[in-house]
C-alpha cells in the first residue's frame, strides 16, 4: 500500500502543479505535513518528491522548502485542467453517484471510529494558515478511511483520488465563500467538542461543494469544445499484481452455484476454459489445483476434472495470497454492511407490487441454501436494480471475493438452513408490509452472520489475521 501512496502523492502534486494550484516559485508543504496528510512515512514522501524533481516540476534543496520550478502561462494551466477533466466527464458523473452510495457511508463509519487524538489532528490541519478545502478534505478522507482498517475500501478511495486528483478549480475562493466559512467553523467546533457527527456534516458539505464546483467547471468547458475521447474509472482490487488465477476460480465457483456446472459433471478442457476466459493454459492449471485444494474439484487421471465436493485441504490453503483473499471477502461483507442502508433506501421505495411479489417468491424458494447464498442473491439483485454500469462493476468485484470464499464457508450438502430461514422471514415480512427498516435489519443481520463465519475461518487458517468486524 505504501507504493500506492507514493504514486498517489506524486500524481496529486504533479496534477496540482500543472493545474496551476502551485505556481512557479511557490513552496510545497513540508515532508512532515505531506506525510501527515497522506498517512505515510517521510521516506515515501521523499521518493515522490524526487520523482517530481526528475520530471522538472520541483527543486529539492537540503534544509529548504521544496520549490515549484514549472513555468507555464495561466492559459496553458487552465487548458491542462480542462483537458484532464473533459476526458473524464462521463465517468465523473458515475463516480460521484458511486461515492454517494458506497464511499460516503464508509467515511461516515470511519469518522465515527476516530479517536479524540484524530479529531485534534483534523483541528490542527483546519487551522493551518495555508489550509483550504482541498487540503482539509484530503486529510479527513485519509484519516477516516484509515480508521476502517479495510484494504478494499482504502483501495477504492485511492483509485478515486487518482481519478479526481481532489480537484483544484481556480474559480473557487475560500475567502469569498460564506458557506465554506460556515462549515469550516462547524468542523473546528466539532473537533473541539469531540462531536463526530458535526465533523462529518462539515466534511460532507466540503465534498458537495467540491463536486458542484468541478461539475460547473466541466460544464463550462464542455460548451466550447468538441467531443473528447473518454477515460473510464477502474477499481483495482488486486493492488500488487493481477490475480488471474483467483478471478478464474471465483468465476468457476459462480458457474457451479448458478447451475451452469453440476456436481459429478466434468469441467471443460484446459484449452476450452483458457479460450472462454481469455487466460493462459498455465493459469487454468493453477486454478484447477486451487479448486482441488478447496474441495471442489476431483482430478481423474486420463479423464479430466470432475466437480466433486470434499473437505478443503487447509494445509495447502495456508498460502498468504489465499488468506488475503479470505480477508478481502470479510472486507467485502463489511463494505456491504456499512453501505447497504443507502443502497436499500435507493432501491426499496421504487419497487412495484409485482416486483415485491417476485422478490418474495425468489427469496422463499431459497429456504435451503446457506446464509452466503442469500447474500450472493441479494447483492446480484441490487446490482440489477441500479442503472449505473460503474456500481454494477464495483458490486461485481465485491462478489468475486464472496464467490472465492464460498466453498470454505459452506458445505453444500449441509447448509445452515435454520439460520437462513430466520433471515428470510424477517426480509420477507419487510417486503410484505413494505417496511424498509425491517427488510434492512434482516439483511444486515444476514451480513453480520456471514462475516462471523469469515472471521472464524480466518481464525482457523491463520493466527495473525486482523479483520475488524463491523459493529
Key phrases:
mainly alpha; 3% strand; 471 residues; two-stranded antiparallel ribbon; 66% helix
DSSP strand content: under 5%
Report the C-alpha radius of gyration, rounded. Answer: 25 Å
Mean pLDDT comes to: 86
Oligomer: single chain
The SSE order reads HHHEEHHHHHHHHHHEEHHHHHH
Quick recap of the structure?
The chain is mainly alpha-helical and 471 residues long.
Commentary on this structure:
It is a single chain. The protein has 471 residues and is mainly alpha-helical. The protein is 66% helix and 3% strand. It has 19 helices and four strands. A hairpin with a 3-residue loop joins strand 3 and strand 4. Helix 11 packs across helix 13 (281-293), helix 15 runs antiparallel to helix 18 and helix 16 (371-385) packs antiparallel against helix 17. The protein is globular.
Amino acid at each position: 500500500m505504501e507504493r500506492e501512496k507514493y504514486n498517489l502523492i506524486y500524481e496529486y502534486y504533479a496534477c496540482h502543479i500543472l493545474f496551476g494550484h502551485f505556481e512557479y516559485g511557490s513552496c510545497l508543504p513540508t515532508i512532515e505535513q505531506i506525510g501527515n496528510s497522506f498517512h505515510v512515512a517521510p521516506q515515501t514522501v521523499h521518493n515522490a518528491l524526487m520523482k517530481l524533481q526528475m520530471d522538472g516540476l520541483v527543486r529539492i534543496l537540503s534544509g529548504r522548502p521544496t520549490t515549484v520550478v514549472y513555468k507555464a502561462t495561466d492559459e496553458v494551466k487552465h487548458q491542462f485542467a480542462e483537458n484532464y477533466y473533459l476526458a473524464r466527464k462521463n465517468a465523473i458523473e458515475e463516480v460521484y453517484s458511486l461515492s454517494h452510495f458506497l464511499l460516503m457511508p464508509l467515511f461516515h463509519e470511519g469518522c465515527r471510529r476516530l479517536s479524540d487524538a484524530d479529531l485534534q489532528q483534523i483541528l490542527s490541519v483546519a487551522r493551518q494558515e495555508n489550509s483550504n478545502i482541498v487540503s482539509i478534505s484530503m486529510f479527513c478522507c485519509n484519516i477516516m478511511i484509515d480508521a476502517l482498517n479495510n484494504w478494499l475500501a482504502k483501495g477504492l478511495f485511492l483509485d478515486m483520488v487518482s481519478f479526481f486528483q481532489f480537484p483544484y478549480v481556480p474559480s473557487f475562493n475560500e475567502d469569498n465563500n460564506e458557506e465554506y466559512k460556515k462549515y469550516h467553523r462547524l468542523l473546528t467546533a466539532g473537533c473541539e467538542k469531540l462531536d463526530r457527527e458535526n465533523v462529518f456534516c462539515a466534511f460532507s458539505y466540503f465534498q458537495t461543494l467540491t463536486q458542484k464546483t468541478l461539475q460547473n467547471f466541466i460544464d463550462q468547458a464542455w460548451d466550447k469544445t468538441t467531443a473528447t475521447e473518454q477515460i473510464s474509472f477502474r477499481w483495482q482490487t488486486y493492488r500488487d499484481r493481477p490475480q488471474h488465477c483467483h478471478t478464474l476460480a471465483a468465476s468457476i465457483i459462480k458457474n457451479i452455484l448458478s447451475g451452469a456446472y453440476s456436481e459429478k459433471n466434468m469441467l471443460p478442457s484446459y484449452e476450452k476454459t483458457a479460450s472462454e476466459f481469455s487466460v493462459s493454459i498455465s493459469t487454468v492449471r493453477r486454478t484447477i489445483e486451487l479448486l482441488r485444494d478447496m474441495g471442489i474439484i476431483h482430478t481423474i487421471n486420463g479423464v479430466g476434472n470432475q466437480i466433486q465436493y470434499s473437505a478443503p485441504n487447509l494445509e495447502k490453503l495456508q498460502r498468504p495470497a489465499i488468506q488475503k483473499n479470505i480477508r478481502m471477502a470479510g472486507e467485502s461483507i463489511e463494505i456491504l454492511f456499512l453501505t447497504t442502508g443507502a443502497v436499500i433506501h435507493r432501491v426499496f421505495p421504487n419497487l412495484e407490487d409485482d416486483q415485491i411479489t417476485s422478490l418474495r417468491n425468489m427469496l422463499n424458494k431459497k429456504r435451503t441454501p446457506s446464509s452466503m447464498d442469500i447474500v450472493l442473491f441479494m447483492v446480484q439483485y441490487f446490482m440489477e436494480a441500479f442503472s449505473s454500469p460503474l456500481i454494477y462493476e464495483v458490486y461485481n468485484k465485491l462478489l468475486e471475493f464472496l464467490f472465492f470464499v464460498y466453498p470454505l464457508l459452506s458445505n453444500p450438502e449441509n447448509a445452515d438452513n435454520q439460520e437462513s430461514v430466520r433471515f428470510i422471514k424477517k426480509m420477507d415480512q419487510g417486503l410484505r408490509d413494505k417496511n424498509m427498516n425491517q427488510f434492512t435489519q434482516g439483511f444486515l443481520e444476514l451480513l453480520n452472520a456471514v462475516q462471523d463465519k469469515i472471521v472464524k475461518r480466518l481464525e482457523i487458517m491463520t493466527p495473525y489475521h486482523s479483520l475488524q468486524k463491523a459493529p
